[in-house]
Amino acid sequence: MLEKNLSLKSKKLVGIEFGTERMKGWNEDYWPVIENDKQIGQVTTAAYSPSLKKNIGYAMLPIERTEIGTKITILARGDETGATVIKEPFVRGREKQ
Hints:
- By secondary structure, the protein is mainly β.
- Helix content is 8%, strand content 49%.
- The chain has a single domain, classed as Elongation Factor Tu (Ef-tu), domain 3.
- The mean pLDDT is 87.
């Protein structure tokens, strides 16, 4: 249990945008985030945003890979796709207080 808690403290949930083609539906399963042929995290939620006109989601990543603008690679439905860590909230005018 202690090992699991330490692992969670070394990760952070961040917003991402990815791909150039509009995705259909949403991710049914977690998608791996890969680096140097190893899984370093996972996309927990992903969908196309009609208002933003791009694919967005959330990924659980190691703390050192969570800076805004960081480029990552996700394995979305079996295809490697580039993604970028972005600032939240996704919609302008809805900033956290």
